[in-house]
Amino acid sequence: MCFLGLAVGIPILQPTALKFGKRFVYLIGTVIVLAASIIGSQAKTVGSIDVYMLLGGIAAAPVDTLVEISSTDIFFQHERASAISWLIFALYSGSFLGPVAAGYITTSMGWKWCFYFEIIIFAVLLIIQLFYMEDTTFRRDFNEEELEENILKQIHLRDKTPIDTKSKDGAADEVKEVNSTSIAEEDIASIDESIPKRGYWSRMRLMEFEYGDLRSWLTIFIRPVYLITFPAVIWGGIIYGAQMMYLSVIGTSQAQIFSAAPYHFQANTIGLTNISVCVGNVIGMYYGGSFVDWSTVWLAKRNDGVLEPEFRLYSMLIPTVVNAAGLLAYGLGAHYGAHWAVPVIIGQGLLGVAMTSSGAICIAYAIDSYQMLASEALVVMLVLRNCIGMSFTFGFQPWLEASGLKLLTWLVFMLSIFINGSYILMIKYGKKLRKWTQKRYEKYSDPNFGESFLKKNVKESTP
């Protein structure tokens, strides 16, 4: 139900944030999760827990959209994988460290205190957000490509030294002085002193209308639908969604596996097994982030300085192999009663590496392919990811009971090879597929595309 809440909340809350301000949506999310925690603490039926999970998923939707979109606003293309990998690491760490704390709380204080601690934490967070969280919503008067080009130009000028322009008549000093002057003039010219600084209460407004998106809410809401025929976006969503399958394998089965023979772990000990996944997340974060950024730039240099989005996909080899190995170590290790280190340290650790790195790679690839539609692409990928995660979470337990752990492990193993291994096809055909979508990409890149069409339909339907 949590995945269902995310899938519903993401396409609704993202346009709401762009139209009325991110602060408003973050506050609404915190209020919803507070209400959900109160319902969960008083739950006496499975239906109450479902309501808690559904509301929690909706409340968490801003984390899946607004934070990831910010990475495309403040990082250059060759830094995006690192930024996205940090975000994915934080998401997975929360998913796996939460059960560690919950295990100890349940053992020592009772399960209700898991919800009471949530209520305390989110109540404090709401107070902090109300008085200290400023709205970062801002509308620029020029496009992002022009901004990035200007920044790169200034960095290039600052990096120049007298050695680069050395001459006997002192021309180097003159060039350096001109460059510094031009940079200073550009910096000063970019500041409009006539614009007053915003006061505290102005920055703390509940809703932001002055700097919000000028397009209608419906236009922003419907734009992601245009990308469902873009192969790179759909492929990225499937790869990201597959990671939710592996997350569900661990989250749904570990209590059943490790509480029974031959392990007989207590609730707190079962929670501690997630530490190995977090360690794997750290490794995967650096591989899927810093290493992928470095390897992409290295391949671009070998390609006469031209960066192709497909360069990121060469790094998918390691996550594909590591993910498959982790599934076998976890499932078969537990099935045959191997030492706990096999399913826990090797199995869950390798899965942690693969999940974090794969997510960062596929998201960065889709954004690189369609930079002007990065926001819309993220919505499509995240909705697809959560739909896959929801389906697998609901279907995993009946599948496990019908097939048994051994057969299920082999089936998921083959799925992982097929899904993750599809990166080979994207390396080969990705550029052709991008050319196939080029005209639509250029058309949809217009921020106002669809605005007049929607207004026309609204007018025609009005009596």
What are its keywords?
463 residues, mainly alpha, 2 domains, globular
Description:
With 463 residues, this protein is mainly alpha-helical. It has two domains: 2-138 and 226-444, Up-down Bundle (Growth Hormone, Chain: A); 142-176. The protein has helices at 2-20, 22-41, 46-74, 80-109, 112-132, 144-159, 171-189, 200-203, 217-222, 231-258, 267-272, 274-302, 317-335, 341-369, 374-420, 423-436, 438-444, 451-461. Helix 4 (80-109) packs antiparallel against helix 12, helix 10 packs across helix 15 (374-420) and helix 12 (274-302) runs parallel beside helix 14 (341-369). It is globular, with a radius of gyration of 25 Å. The two termini are 39 Å apart.
